[in-house]
Amino acid sequence: MRAALFVTCFNDTLFPATGRAVVELLERLGCEVAFPEAQTCCGQMHGNTGYADLGGTLLERWELVFAGEEVVVSPSASCVVYVREHVPSAHGRLFELTEFLVDRLGVTDVGASFPHRVTLHPTCHSLRPLRIGDRPRRLLSEVRGLDLVELHDAEECCGFGGTFAAKNADTSMAMLSDKLRRLLDTRAEVCTAADNSCLMHIGGALRRQRSGMRTIHLAEILAAQE
Amino acid sequence: MKGFPAAARVALQDAQLRRNVGKAVTTIRAKRAEAVDELPDWEALRDAGAAIKARAMATLPEQLDRLEASVVSRGGVVHWARDGAEANAIVAQVARSHGTREVIKVKSLTTDEIRLNEALAAEGISAVETDLAELIIQLAGDRQSHILVPAIHMGRGEIRRLFERTIADGELSNEAGALTEAARRHLREKFLSVPVAVSGANFGVAETGTVVVVESEGNGRMCTTLPRALVTVMGIEKVLPAWRDLEVMLQLLPRSSTAERMNPYTSLWTGVHRGDGPEEFHLVLLDGGRSDVLADEVGRQTLHCIRCSACLNVCPVYSRVGGQAYESVYPGPIGAVLSPQLFGVDEHPTLPWASSLCGACYDVCPVKIDIPSVLVHLRGRVVREQKSRLSPEALAMRALAAAFGSRKRYERAQTLARLGRGPIAKAALPAWTAMRDLPEPPSQSFREWWRARS
User: Could you tell me how many CB contacts below 8 A there are between chain A and chain B?
Assistant: First the structure.
């Protein structure tokens, strides 16, 4: 099966390891991965910050770039939500990574091995608008050696919210401190999620506090064969 | 107005508030989830609730005419108020016609919205709040911090000292029983002696002319039955077309707000009945900006709100900052969309950003108001109507959009961002870097890796 990767500008620029992991993972599962190089940004940040006109132009660009693709896969729940909400032609062919693996490829055991203690932040966009439910958990539970530990109040937002984290930095940080407390309580080595935006937020504070806990995108765990 | 970020910064430092609000919302969240899980048709009820409200709003002029005719035919008087000042003048007029210097009040957000108590005070009439928490707020000269639990931010000791200073005879203990007893003694006297009561309305049924108030303490029942005259101030969006619509609403509201199957007191009254209850009933229909909200295609769903406060209780922002940070009688997610629309985006330009768009509010809303979408819509209005096109944010947004507009510019911007990451990011994002580290810059973008590989 041919799958076009919508890596997102955020991952392309700041978290290339996630994009590489998606490519390795999908190829291992027998997909032919394409990367339309004209892709840039879907406009989510613009749209959600009140610049719908600018966001709209970028959505049009997205639609053009991916026009010929029957299957598009992306490792970002929030970008998938934004595109699906605004581009009707994306329906039925744009998949968030865990949706693609579980629903389209029908696999939960992706042949990964990651012998570490891991906890999962389910992310707001994955949980609510996208409803990917327990797909990340099902995928993680099949990873060899992985010890998945429960996170309390997991469904609560980490406080990122795009420009919210800068515009309401104090409130955002108050939300993040509660998330960090819950994370550190798990004594996990790794916090994972299906979206690097939440992980950048959480990871930024974990590093600042020299906590020793790492953040890794779910795709990187699923690609791992340690 | 401080604006939300600054008001929140103050609230976040209040340890008592953080503890009280955090504890209360955690408890009520779990209880609500249980109460909702009991109903296998909850999702169908939400759909029905949303449909009833959408129909009421789509036919609002007709429903209001029907409501007026029904109320009048059953002996009530209907007044139309364009704004709060008109509504307040009507209430004051009724009080004056009864020669009273005091009115008793049922808890009502609508009368708080129009600052009725202050308007009456200016006319020499004092309004006595009879809901326990509203009484506490009134005696303390404080502001509400929750739609349903207005004094959620206060501790028991604080309330004891307040009562000792104001309404109690002598000293009290910190026991809840002792505190409510003091309030009860104070209020009983008012219920039995004040001739005019003022209420809001949870619903007004067009078909029958019935007004509905739901409450927990019984003070509302006292106010709607004991005085000679009753004045109800009702926002026009509270109208329901048919009596049977209550079947849906009275299931949705208590489970969403107090996590109860049914609230302790549901008072319904229709006009006046000789020898039974108030001899005079006035219904004041308040517009107060609601027609303007109705005219906005995206924003109008905000008028579906039945003031249950479920969105406050699940909101990760509200549960940390409390209600006062929203600087409006309507706090929380619903307040963040309602206040700018009712009182003007110029009055509340920061509220549409008082949310991380996590979507928890939309999930619990009993009438399915898509609060995140309305927030984003209002952000657009603020950007268009309030912000300069030359603000640093607007310029940055346009520059980024231009960079993302072509592959070449985008790739050049990626390289620049990588080279200048440290100093540029620190300068551009001080709010971020003050409390969190930025990720280490990768030596290669994804697309560079892709190209090198193929």
Answer: 186
